[in-house]
Specification:
An eight-stranded parallel barrel has the order 1-2-3-4-5-6-7-8, surrounded by five helices. Helix content is 49%, strand content 8%. The protein is an alpha/beta fold and 507 residues long. The chain is built from 23 helices and eight strands. α9 links the parallel β7 and β8.
């Protein structure tokens, strides 16, 4: 028997409608989801925290509480970016520990902890905090291919994560290009050599995901991720109903009721119809090109957006060719938030300026210096020498450089909201400006109709105050909104900014 982790309440809508599903569209289906018999329900983490505050003007903690109340039987799961938590920078250890403890108190049972570089040092504090909070620590291996990403290297990483206290492992194929044979071989090796349960997460981008899920299940994976069909396919996960039907009557049978799943699919089809203005048809298309360029769907959307704003869509082929070169220069990082944005923005700059690494983005400088962690492979010597000439590299764990933050954040948030509790302090610590704007929006008493307009990007319906200064109304997946904004700032600094009045229409 293979378990199913249902992603419709998190990665399914993050992948297809920019994470815009509101809590009120989830709750009517919650009791039925809880009754299905899923191994777990992924409901939180990733970009959901940011988008709740930034665009939906919802309290992400209240969403979690409401979902836990409505779904008490099925384990609830979240995606945690290691030392980055649900943000885009490393946070101090006291913030990491406080966040994990609060998330566990509010209802998260399984924490899928990953690091964009597969650097265990960036996962160890979060994994330890999960164990201390009584949660299940699902340590993650980000799957990619390169000269340094071998089966042996992945198994070594699995052993290290087990030694850090992981309860189980997740193979995270964020690009959706893991072939069935390689996925099966990796799962078999991890089960045999590490001895922990293995879960597999993939995306349908290349068209191989259903085949890969069947292959890894047959190889010994205890569970695979899937999304109910309205929010499946393309850059999302394979359809839950399809996988359940394919395994029905076999030793892998998840034993889920296809009729009940069909009824849930009807609900979420109605939900998708409501959010259809946010659905980019590219996100539903199969893209076998990812098998060679390895660019995830959200990253590709971000590249297209940047090039469009520079009136340079005709140079996409050059950028797609430059991405793997930049990735090689940086030691072959897996392309997942935030490394996909670090690589992508630098690739665009290299192409549009006509000179590679002039300029070097601040994020690339920090990456080369080691502030994001240890790269999987060696960094190009010339690039490293250029970056570290005036700012030396570090060799230790990046978060060791960060002083405690929670006392300061609690004091600052209580200057805004005198009765703020630790959950609100954590929201502020993760996204100070976004949280302040969220509080202003709530204080003016926005009603649900206005909030629904904001969720759909209809900014004309929102007058005072604005959602968040300079934030795009339609955020790409995985929190790329911040990175897209910083990428445009880098381009602007090079004198290549296109007139905003003609080309920066908000959708």
């Amino acid at each position: 028997m293979v378990g199913i982790t249902e992603t419709v309440l998190r990665d399914g809508h993050q992948s297809l409608i920019a994470t815009r599903m509101r809590t009120r569209d989830m709750l009517p289906a919650a009791e039925r989801l809880d009754a299905i018999g899923y191994r777990s329900l992924e409901v939180w983490g990733g970009a959901t925290f940011d988008v709740c505050l930034r665009f939906l003007h919802e309290d992400p903690w209240e969403r979690l509480r409401a979902l836990k109340r409505a779904m008490p039987r099925t384990p609830l799961q979240m995606l945690l970016r290691g030392q980055n938590l649900v943000g885009y920078r490393h946070y101090a250890d006291d913030v990491v520990r406080a966040f994990v403890a609060e998330a566990a108190r509010e209802g998260i049972d399984i924490f899928r902890v990953f690091d964009a570089l597969n650097d265990p040092r960036n996962m160890e504090v979060a994994l330890d905090a999960v164990k201390k909070a009584g949660g299940r620590a699902q340590a993650t291996i980000c799957y990619t291919t390169s000269p340094v990403h071998t089966l042996e290297a992945f198994v070594r990483l699995g052993r290290t994560l087990a030694a850090l206290g992981a309860d189980e492992l997740c193979v995270k194929d964020m690009g959706g290009f893991m072939p069935p044979g390689e996925g099966a071989a990796l799962v078999r090796a991890l089960v045999k050599e590490v001895g922990l349960p293995v879960v597999v997460h993939t995306h349908s981008s290349s068209g191989m995901s259903s085949m890969t899920c069947l292959a890894v299940a047959d190889a010994g994976a205890v569970a695979v991720d899937a999304a109910l069909s309205p929010f499946a396919g393309g850059t999302s996960q394979p359809p839950t109903e399809t996988l359940v039907g394919a395994m029905r009557g076999t030793p892998l049978d998840p034993r889920l009721d296809l009729g009940a799943l069909a009824e849930l699919a009807e609900h979420f089809q109605t939900v998708l119809d409501h959010y259809r203005p946010l659905l980019d048809l590219r996100s539903l298309q199969t893209d076998p090109g990812i098998l060679t360029h390895q660019i995830p769907g959200g990253m590709l959307s971000n590249l297209l957006s940047q090039l469009k704003e520079q009136e340079a869509l005709g140079r996409l082929t050059e950028v797609l060719a430059e991405v793997p070169r930049v990735r090689a220069d940086l030691g072959y990082p897996p392309l997942v938030t935030p490394t996909s944005q670090i690589v992508g923005i630098q690739a665009v700059l290299n192409v549009l300026t006509g000179v590679r690494y002039r300029p070097v983005t601040e994020e690339v400088r920090n990456y080369v210096r080691g502030l994001y962690g240890s790269p999987p492979g060696p960094i190009d010597p010339e690039l490293k020498a250029k970056v570290t000439a005036n700012a030396p590299a570090i060799t230790g764990r990046p978060a060791d450089l960060l002083p405690p933050e929670m006392p300061k954040m609690l004091a600052e948030v209580r200057a805004l909201v005198p009765a703020a509790d630790e959950a609100e302090a954590l929201s502020y610590a993760l996204f100070p400006a976004v949280y302040a704007a969220y509080r202003r929006a709530r204080n003016v008493g926005l009603n649900d109709d206005v909030l629904a307009s904001v969720a759909l990007g209809v900014v004309g319906a929102f007058r005072s105050p604005p959602p968040v200064a300079s934030a795009p109304a339609l955020a790409p997946r995985g929190g790329e909104s911040r990175w897209a904004h910083e990428g445009r700032a880098q381009l602007q600094s090079q004198g290549r900014w296109v007139d905003a009045g003609r080309h920066r229409t908000r959708r």
